[in-house]
From TrEMBL:
Transmembrane segments: none annotated. It is an enzyme of class 2 (transferase). The chain holds residues 71 to 333 of 350 of the full protein. Its EC number is 2.5.1.54. This is 3-deoxy-7-phosphoheptulonate synthase. One of its GO terms (molecular function) is 3-deoxy-7-phosphoheptulonate synthase activity. Keywords: Transferase. It comes from Actinomadura fibrosa.
Length: 263
């Protein structure tokens, strides 16, 4: 279902009316985690002012440590919905449990499946039945074929509105949080008709890498990027060191606008 060979043309996926696919370089930005109404609104206003057309933000956070901030859950979803009403930005947010898919889909414009759930087949199937576009991150230990097969689990349930997201893989290299597999973008676009975007924030894990990795994503023809921003990264409850502040985001957005995407 997701193979390019069977489908031909590359697909465009629309999220609340915003297109992601060939000919686009969609900028998705927002906080890693929804922490409060003020923090989420400030991050969204930064994102919108810079030109981002979709708002990201996690209400359910899959953290390595059970002692780390786990997200606000449904209260976070309500904050996202309020911020959408105020800014007009459609929402991309993660769902971590098959039992929460209906709840998250009742607020979200796009469901995000994170790297740690890339082979959670019950979750993938539930997301495929939720009636919302799905952004599917590549498993940090997953091959491109495993990633595409994960997409196949979603598609099999009747949902072909899937966007693949390369977010870095686990290698021997520890200088970056993950190794951005930039070649995965053209390979996945060759093998699948689905749009492919890049997450330079979670791959590099560091603010100074976000712009260079975004340039790389544009250069290889990614259909979009998803970027962490925070009004006060030093106080962020999740992944502050990789969050961009206002000026950084505007500079990045200019690069996204000025470098024409490959079609
Ligand atoms: C995220 O985007 O909030 C996230 C946790 O990403 P990943 O699943 O790629 O680690």
């Amino acid at each position: 279902l997701v193979s390019r060979e069977n489908h031909g043309e590359r697909s465009v996926v629309r999220v609340g009316g915003v297109p992601i696919g060939p000919g686009t370089m969609t900028l998705i930005a927002g906080p890693c985690a929804v922490e409060s109404p003020e923090q989420t609104l400030q991050a969204a206003l930064m994102a919108r002012a810079a030109g981002a057309t979709l708002l990201r933000g996690g209400a359910f956070k899959p953290r390595t440590s059970p002692y780390a901030f786990q997200g606000l859950g449904e209260a976070g979803l309500r904050i996202l919905a309020d911020v959408r009403a105020e800014t007009g930005m459609p929402i991309v947010t993660e769902v971590v449990d098959a039992g929460d898919v209906e709840l998250v889909a009742s607020y979200a414009d796009m469901l995000q499946i994170g790297t740690r759930n890339a082979q959670n087949f019950a979750l993938l199937q539930a997301a495929g039945e939720a009636g919302r576009p799905v952004m599917l991150k590549r498993g940090m230990n997953g091959t491109i074929e495993e990633w595409l097969m994960a997409a196949e689990y979603v598609a099999q349930r009747g949902n072909l509105d899937i966007v693949l997201c390369e977010r870095g893989i686990r290698t021997f290299e520890r200088a970056t949080r993950n190794t951005l597999d930039i070649s995965a973008v053209p390979v996945a676009q060759r093998l699948s008709h689905l749009p492919v975007i890049v997450d330079p924030s979670h791959s590099g894990g560091s603010r100074d890498l976000v712009l260079p990795l975004t340039r790389a994503a544009i250069a290889v023809g990614a259909d979009g990027v998803i970027i962490d921003v925070h009004p006060h990264p030093e106080t962020a409850l999740c992944d502050g060191p990789q969050a961009l502040v206002d000026g950084d985001l505007r500079e990045l957005a200019k690069v996204v606008r000025d470098l024409p995407p490959l079609v």
